[in-house]
Specification:
The protein is mainly alpha-helical. The chain contains 15 helices and no strands.
Length: 263
């Protein structure tokens, strides 16, 4: 398992570097400009109040210019999850690509069990993903201090952490479908994209229609409220979703991978 873990990490060192650099840059370039915004926050809220209200459902709230509102709407509600979901889908697909690039025979020829193979891939993905998460949080924290954002550092950490877990849940779903069987492989990307980005759109449109409001309650994004997270409130529905998503994805991935025909 260790050899597979190290092999997967080495193969993706540039993937890790560029995603870390890219996401950290986005975080920094989004937070730092708040220096010029915070002194005019009240004026901007007053002059753009109607626009903020109409766009609020797509940005996680109508408060776009307070420290919490700005960080929530500009980073944690859609921008960072969007980038992370794209990253974890690419990572999940990459980790399971050996079935399509003719290297699966070499992997299975090693004196290790299928469980060890899959566990090695998962741990490699977790380490890569964690590297991006840790470095981007450090950048977020430093930029928040530089701009003197009045946000509790503990709340910022929790929000950043949950944002990464939230995005990772979609990557785990894709990983599960890729690993479980040859039939579910074809559904991995469509299902994950529909649940993530489709869920975001439905949740955003829920403010305009009771039909969408009802449907939204069945999507993960309905329980993902970054404004509340940044003020120290964690919704129970979000915790339940994340726990179930992680347990189900891990369970079905290992069961399916051990029982299926590989290739």
């Amino acid at each position: 398992m260790i050899s597979i873990l190290l092999w997967e990490i080495r193969r993706r060192k540039w993937f890790t570097f560029w995603w870390t650099f890219g996401i950290s840059s986005v975080v920094a370039l989004t937070i730092l400009p708040y220096v010029s915004v915070k002194e005019q926050a009240d004026e901007l809220t007053e002059s753009l109040g109607e626009l903020s209200s109409s766009a609020g459902s797509f940005l996680g709230g109508a408060d776009l210019f307070s420290p919490v509102g700005y960080i929530s709407s500009q980073i944690y509600y859609i921008t960072l999850p969007l980038l992370l979901i794209i990253m974890v889908l690419a990572l999940a697909s990459s980790l399971m690509r050996d079935e399509t690039d003719a290297t699966i025979e070499l992997t299975l020829a090693r004196p290790v069990s299928r469980t060890s193979i899959l566990l090695g891939k998962l741990l490699a993905g977790l380490m890569i993903y964690s590297t991006v998460g840790i470095i981007s949080y450090i950048i977020a924290y430093i930029c928040a201090e530089v701009t003197a954002l009045s946000i509790n550092s503990n709340h910022l950490f929790v929000t950043h952490f949950i944002c990464y877990i939230f995005a990772a849940s979609f990557g785990l779903l894709a990983f599960m479908l890729l690993a479980a069987s040859s039939r579910t492989r074809r559904l991995a990307m469509p299902v994950t994209i529909l649940l993530s980005f489709g869920g975001y759109l439905i949740t955003s449109l829920a403010a305009y229609s009771s039909v969408f409001d009802t449907i939204a309650k069945a999507t993960p994004y309905h329980y993902y409220n970054t404004t509340k997270l940044l003020t120290g409130e964690i919704q129970q529905g979000l915790v339940i979703y994340l726990a179930l998503a992680i347990m189900i994805s891990f369970g079905f991935a290992f069961i399916g991978y051990n029982r299926r025909d590989i290739g």
